[in-house]
Amino acid sequence: MEQRPQVQTQRRIEALPHTDLGEVCSVFRKGIFDIKADSYAESGVPFVRIGNLRDGLIDTKDTVFITPEAHAAESNTALEFGDIVLSKTAYAAASFVNVPHCNVSQDTIAVRLSAVGRKQFKTGFIVAYLNCRFGRLLMERQFQGNVQLHLSLPDGRKMPIPIFGDVFQSATDKTLRDAHSQLLSAGSKLSEAESSLTAALGLGNWQPPEPLTYTRRASEAFAAARLDAEFFQPKFQALIDAMKPHSSDYQLVPLQSLTEPLKYGCSEPLEYLDQGRIFLRIADLQNKQFQLDSVKRVSIDHSFNGSDVVKLNDVLISRSGTLGIAVPITNEFANSAYGSYFIRTRPDTKIIHPEFLALFVNSFAGQLQVKGKNSGGVQMNLTIPAIESLMIPLGDMKWQMRFVAYIEAAHTAHQRAQELLAAAH
After folding, report:
1. H or E segment at 70?
2. pLDDT tier at 425, thresholds 50, 70, 90
3. For the stretch 143-167, what's the b/e string if a residue is b when 16 or more beta carbons lie within 10 angstroms of its beta carbon?
4. Pairwise CA distance, residues 66 & 36, whole Å
5. Within 13 Å, how many C-alpha atoms sit on residue 88's CB side?
6. Any idea what the Cα angle at residue 323 is, between residues 321 and 326, rounded to 5°?
7. Which of 184, 227, 230, 79 is nearest to 420 (CA)?
8. What pLDDT, in 10s, does the model give residues 307-355?
9. What's the pLDDT band for 378 if we cut at 50, 70, 90?
10. So what's the pLDDT on residue 224?
């Protein structure tokens, strides 16, 4: 039985001047159904999947790519900047295409306005409307199915879009585009932070050696308690040698010397609730950050060990799944519990800035060390001793702030983008 809020919303929208979405589109097609494995590529044309539809824009951080040839062969669903992608399965979502060009997967719908539609509507306005409370209710009403909900093309085409004046639509469209610009700025600042740190460490033009053969003494293998050849690849020691201080600005020290004892997270089975204490899981990481609207919560009355709870300025490092991702704990996540796929560090903030520690661990130099420290067979993992042994460049706080300033600017731009997206919706 349909929920009353959805019916009431449809009646309210249909009482306004409106048109069905399909009436103003030249393209309204399901994404590529049969995509061959050899169509994927390391780079090329972004291939948008339902997981990339986030907050009204396409999240490009986890985008996969297809070859230009595969894109050309599926030109019917090829989209450009300013077009629209709708979700077709699982849940209602709509995103403004904020990449120069892309193609879309079968769990989404490619949408392009017709010439008539572009005269009547701004695409940013349509996306903002479909993501607002009223538009989302109408989209959800059109989803159907038992095992997995889906949106059929005929049902998607008949979604009513209210007709508002050009001034309002243009302002909404501009807000969405400005949010995109702020996210680009945030990404640029993060890249500048890493590139400037990499240059300061003398690694700007450094390439890891990849010899065809190498040897190690048996005594080295026994001392390291490792018999796998990967652990002894020359590039790992070459990295440490290349990072050795080129000036008096910093020294290399093990992470263990910068933090209180490291701790594993909670491994107890827990029931997730709508309200309660935040519980941080690796599955909830989005672009190396947690988002308040997507994390899990557990009973506030559950008794956690003190080591299972984070404080402001702690840094969590993932130890399984996606390895070595470092996440500083900010105010909104202080006093959260965290799962066993993380290891908690508690840096001495008098000597190292948590954002700087996370920046380095997430950088090329930090991640290459992580690769050299991981262990395991089917599933790789990191241990506390492995993370403790990561070599960190430690300079005074003024030196660290040269790089942290970029991170803070990125956070500011990202926060502004979120505010703009909320305003648009």
Report:
1. helix 68-73
2. confident
3. beeeeebebeeeebbebbbbebeee
4. 10
5. 22
6. 120
7. 184
8. 999 999 999 999 987 889 999 999 999 999 999 999 999 999 999 999 9
9. low
10. 63
The pLDDT of residue 291: 83
- Interatomic CA distance for residues 192 and 199, integer angstroms: 10
Instruction: Kindly give the residue spans of alpha helices, DSSP state H, lying in 95-214.
Output: 115-120, 123-131, 133-142, 153-157, 166-200
Highest mean pLDDT (candidates 31-35, 207-211, 280-284, 357-361): 357-361
pLDDT band at 289 (very low <50, low <70, confident <90, very high): confident
Q: What's the alpha-carbon Rg for the chain, to the nearest Å? A: 25
Task: List Cα–Cα distances, 26 to 83, 100, 117, 157, 158, in angstroms.
Answer: 11, 19, 8, 11, 14
The pTM is what? 0.84
Please report where in the chains the tokens 């803070």 appear, as a residue: 408
The total of other beta-carbon atoms located within 10 Å of residue 314's CB is 22
Question: How many other CB atoms are found less than 10 A from the CB of residue 242?
Answer: 16
Complete edge-to-edge strand list for the sheet that includes strand 337-338: 296-298, 277-280, 337-338
**Both structure tokens of 215:** 């040897």
Distance between start and end Cα atoms, the chain: 28
**Structure confidence at residue 248 (pLDDT):** 86
Strands of the sheet containing 45-48, edge to edge, are 40-41, 64-66, 45-48, 101-104, 79-80
DSSP single-letter state for residue 188: H
The rounded distance, in Å, linking the Cα atoms of 317 and 128 is 35
Site of tokens 């291939």: 47
DSSP state string for 298-343: E-TT----GGGB--TT-EEEE-BSSTT-EEE--GGGTT-EEBTTEE
At residue 262, the 3 state secondary structure works out as strand
**Residue at 265: amino acid letter:** G
CA distances from 320 to 282, 298, 300 (A): 9, 22, 27
pLDDT at 87 over 50: yes
Q: 93 CB contacts (<8 Å, ≥6 apart)?
A: 50, 53, 54, 86, 87, 131
**Helix and strand numbers, DSSP H then E, in the chain:** 13, 22
**pLDDT surpasses 50 at 290:** yes
Residue 221 has pLDDT above 90, yes or no: no
Instruction: Give the residue from 178, 170, 78, 85 showing the smallest Cα distance to 120.
Output: 170
